[in-house]
Structure formats: C-alpha cells, structure tokens
Amino acid sequence: MSSSKPSSPSADPRPGTRHAGPEDLVLYALQFLAGEQAADLTHHFEHCAECLRELALVEGDLAACAFSVEPHSPPALARQRLRTQVARENRVAAQPALAAFGRNRSILASPEDEAPKRSRALTLLGWLGWILFAGLAVAGAKFYQEDAAQSARLGAQSSELERLNADSARAHQLLDALTDPDAAHVTLSAKPPAKAQPLGRVTYNRANGSLIFLADDLDPLVTGKVYELWLVPADGRNPIPAAVFHPDNHGNASVLLPTLPAGVPARNFGVSIEDEGGAQTPTPPYILAGSL
Amino acid sequence: MELQTGVFDTAVPPIADDAFLLSLVQSGDEQAVATLFDRYSRTVYSVALRVLSDAASAEDVLQEVFLQLWRTPGSFTTDGGSLGGRLAVLARNRSIDALRRRRPINLIDAIALGSPSDLAREAGRNRFAERARKLLHQLPSGQRKALEMAFFDGLTHREIAEMTGEPVSTVKSSLRSALLALREAFQP
Fold first, then answer.
1. Domains in chain B, ordered, with CATH?
2. Exposure check for chain B: N or C terminus, fewer CB within 10 A?
3. 0.95 surpassed by pTM
C-alpha cells in the first residue's frame, strides 16, 4: 500500500485499466467489493504486476491478523475424515488413467498396420512389452496390496455389522417385551394396595431428549379421548406435548422415545386427558404427575 | 488402509517445506496433504471457529479448505509467499461465506507475509501468532475494532460505519491504517 503508483488512480476510464486505490485494495482483499467493481479490479490484477504485489502485501497483513486468533485444536476425527475423502477422490481419479492405459495397450496389439517398419517395430514392441510387463507388475502389486487392505476392511466391517445386528435384535426384544399387550406387568410392593391406582414411570435423558414412559392401571377412556404425556420445562416454558397414547385392555401403556428436543431441562411430567389427536396445551387436571 | 504413494516412503526430509509438500500434493500424494493438515489445521480451525463460533461449522470449513488444497494445489503455489497465511485467509473467507450463506467468491489472491517467519515449524507459527496477538492489542482501539469487525465478523465497511456511527471514509481509513501498522511492526 505504500507504493505510489497503485495509490494514485490513473485517469484511464476503461474498465480494468485503473490502478487500485490503497483502500480499495483492502476492501477487495476482505471480499467487500462486489459486482462490477470487483470484476474490474480482478481484471486489472491480471495485467498489473505492481497492483498484484500490493494485493499480496495486504493479504499478508490479513494473514497476520488471522494468526492472532486464540488457538484451538480441531476435533480428533477431522484428520481421518479428510484422509478418507482424499483417498476416495484419489481412487476415483486413478480409474480414468487405468482406462487410458488399457486403450494404449490395445493400439500396441495391432502391429500389422506397421508392416513397412516391421523389424524396427518388433524391436520397439519388444521393449514396450517389457515396459508394459513392468507396469503391469507394479500395478498388479499395488492392486494386490489394495485388495488385501479391502479384504481386511471388509472383515472389520462384517464384524461390526454382526455386532450391530446383535445389538439391534436385543433392543427389539426389549421393546417387544415392554410393549406387548399380552405381557404381564406386576408392581411389587410391601403390602398389597387396597385398590390399584394408576401409576406411571418416566425415564428421561435431558442431553439427547430420549424418554421412556410406562404406565399401569390406567382407566379406559371414552371414545374420542386419549391420554397425553407432557414434559414441563424447568425454565418456565410452556409444557411440551410428548405423545398421545391409549392404554391396552389391562390398563397398561407405554411411550417409547417420542420426538423431543434435546437439552430441555424438565421440572415435571404429567398425563392429561385430551380429545383424540392431542392438544397443544394440557387440559387440567393432570391425572398423573411427577417432578424431578 | 492409508494409501502410500511412494515419495514419503523413501525419503522424508526432516521438515519438508511447504513448496515441496505442495508439489507432492500436485502429484496426488495423500500423505503430503495429511502433513500439511497436521501443520496448519489448528490455525485454519481456530480462524473458522473465531468467525463462526460453532465447532461443527468450523470443522466443515476446515475440511473445505484442505479439500480445496487437495483438489487444486496449483492455486496455492506462491512465489515465496506463505501457504500458512493463504490457508488462514482462505479459512476466514470461507467462514464469512458460510456466515452469510453465500456462494464462495473467487477473487485473485496472492499472499505475502511481511515477516520472514518460518511458519512451517510449530515454534515459528507459535512465535508469529503470539506476536500478531500482541500487535493487534497494541493498535488504537478504533482501528482494532474496525479490523476485528471486518475480518472476523465479516461486516462490510458500510455496516461497520452504520454500527459505529463513523463515516464510511473513516472506517476505510482505519482498516488501512491498522493493516499498515501490522505490516510495519512485522518488518525486520
């Protein structure tokens, strides 16, 4: 920016021919110029080494500014993420090259077209044969190496898939046991209660918003009515509808992993009776309620 | 499996300079781009995080910057310029694009640092960063504020003028003066 020439705009009115003013250089480097103004300067930089040097200095100043940030380490997996993508793109890029290699080979396999230069062509072909062989040997070794690695990776992925399948089967079994209408639900207590009262249990993980609700001894509802479960946030926000549900013939009900926002601190949970389809605000009173 | 493409398997210079690594990247050497990632990812991520204030978005910018390096290494070759500086400024520009949800702007860039710092070495980068932080804090408050608003918050000179109540010409002048002060301080 200290150079005199770029700091004194030329009188030439043609677009792209005017030297960049020092402040425009800064705005250009900060990407604050747009449209015609930016296009004119870009065009000018392509032809004016002096202004380009000035721009480089300004960008160097900005780089110094960038380096002034407080340092933070990137997430540990970021490196592997990049390497995976790079490897994928490298493999894709390698394929056309191999295809071209195949095409060259097919051209070399037609020597009869070169009959007048047969002896020289044969010598050349002999050498090319060795070169081709060497190339194929290198490529073969590389493919073998990659194949072995692919097999190892496939093996690891198969094991992982088996583990996930086993986990999934177990989770399904657990859910089936909880939700099967024929499953018996027994509440154990010190003394048998005189009359079974409705009882609900909520398991709630605030961090990821996962919720499991199980209830026993709920009264049957008249047609057109449903039970609705509510999460009452601790921060004073309105109750959040978690799910509507019907009890089975034994008065048992469950709500498993309804869609809830993550990170909501809960103060209370409640169950109300609403019209079919549910409500956006609970209708008092809660027939079941519990606080954390 | 990490593909080894040869050059690094046989001869690894103690500290490969950026130009050498860039030439390897140009020939498709995956290890070379990983080495440059190890060298500059902290700077790139820190700049993106400073602009975006969001770890996930900053990591996206980090990936974007190094994938650009991988895909178009030729555009990063500079005659004596600084690759670290180029990546840091690119991280800022891509972060501002993300902040404003706009398409990346492709302008000419040719970077030179006003200091002979050896950014290829971690100690050199740390020294340079420490000095840049110190110098930025020593700038007159108006200049520093304008520079931070423009560089890290992506506010244009007009937006800064609106927010601070200063004339646009004063903001432009402050930005230029701040950068000149940084340059002069880094002069040997």
1. 7-116 (1.10.1740.10)
2. C
3. no
